[in-house]
Amino acid sequence: MNLNRxxxxxxxxxxxxxxxxxxxxxxxALKTVRLELASxxxxxxxxxxxxxxxxxxxxxxTEGNRSWPVTSEGQMEFQQxxxxxxxxxxxxxxxxxxxxxxxxxxxxxxTNTHVxxxxxxxxxxxxxxxxxxxxxxxxxxLPRRQLDLLQMPCDVLVSGMLLPxxxxxxxxxxxxxxxxxxxxxxxxxGVEQNIRCELTAADAxxxxxxxxxxxxxxxxxxxADIELSGEMVFDRxxxxxxxxxxxxxxxxxxGPVSPGLDVTAHIEWTQVPVxxxxxAQAPVAEEIDAPSAQNRLxxxxxxxxxxxxxxxxxxxxxxxxxxxMLRQLRNGNLIxxxxxxxxxxxxxxxxxxxxxxxxxxxxxxxxxxxDVVSEDTVRDDEQWRVRHVQAAGDADGTxxxxxxxxxxxxxxxxxxxxxxxxxxxxxxxxxxxxRILSTLQVARRRPALPR
Length: 451
Description:
Layout: H1 3-31, E1 32-34, E2 44-59, E3 66-83, E4 93-108, E5 111-116, E6 123-129, E7 132-136, E8 142-143, H2 144-149, H3 156-159, E9 167-169, E10 173-175, H4 180-185, E11 189-202, E12 206-219, E13 222-235, E14 240-252, E15 260-273, H5 293-296, E16 298-301, E17 306-310, E18 314-319, E19 323-330, E20 333-343, H6 354-366, E21 371-380, E22 384-395, E23 398-409, E24 414-422, H7 426-429, H8 432-437, E25 441-442
Parallel strand pairs: 8-16
Antiparallel strand pairs: 1-9, 2-3, 2-15, 3-4, 4-5, 4-6, 6-7, 10-11, 11-12, 12-13, 13-14, 14-15, 16-17, 17-25, 18-19, 19-20, 20-24, 21-22, 22-23, 23-24
């Protein structure tokens, strides 16, 4: 055999084998990727979040359901530090966020509303687990509107729970834990759910994950069907989710505290390390206190100048300049209602006579075959005198208990709080009225501006 040909053949075979080896190694590196978030506290990230919602809102009326066009746009910009998880609870995760922007603008028919997070509330702590996500301020109770504003579909923290946390191959599919999709979409109680994730592309810098899912359950006592689909990009160098785009389609029936919805939400957010952000702010704290009972309370400023605190079970159902209606939900079930209104103002230090108040209550419940069953004074100090009249009656065959409270401030301003619940919910309602009454305050009047 010709030696030159032998050498040439050997070189060709060597090059082929070397090339095959190099190609095989590169393919393997791309086909198998580890998708695991960076350890907590290792970095602070800057997140830009956008939400657009279009569709219809449904409200019940005496003439049947009415539909209204609804559009909403929300934006948030904040820095976030994930904190170490509880070693005894694998599914618990914590974080602290500092918001630069947090607002939403909504239009229903011809009515426009704008909700914004005040500066004093812009540092928010998060304590979350498979049982739910709790957002709170470490010093001040949040108002309900601001808490609702912070509820983001496809929250950055929860989206990280879609990752498998292990090595996966290209085109490999996996399911997330059952609690993840309800939390991603804002479902309080999930009945049926499924979500499938897939690694669709990868290189040395990024990996792309596609996800689709459906969930049925309840939101604030309203039944809801949701479809979610989207794609997120995992930054392999920083081990964070760099971006997410998703579409959430939701149909929700009218419920005890919220209207029905038939809407489509477009969600988009990006995340970069603060060192690479264009507007890096002050460092985010490295530790937070666990949420206390006080942290979990919500603050209500009524148009009547009356202020109070309440648990997260209470939701604003209706509000006018003269009447506020709250409803208490637990696990999606309506427990009780509270109506708040102004009463007649009297001279400082005085109050409406007890007999007159009891007579007013007796007259109010007479239409529902009710009558007064007890009377007492539950508070009498330098700030408040609170007179309680309890009545019982019948409403469409259901035994109802009404607790009327006349709250007389030392200034002479008086307020009426009426709690109502069915007899079967007596134990569930418990001493909820006493908890709220113990937090009453009258807002200070603003000083008149000089001319």
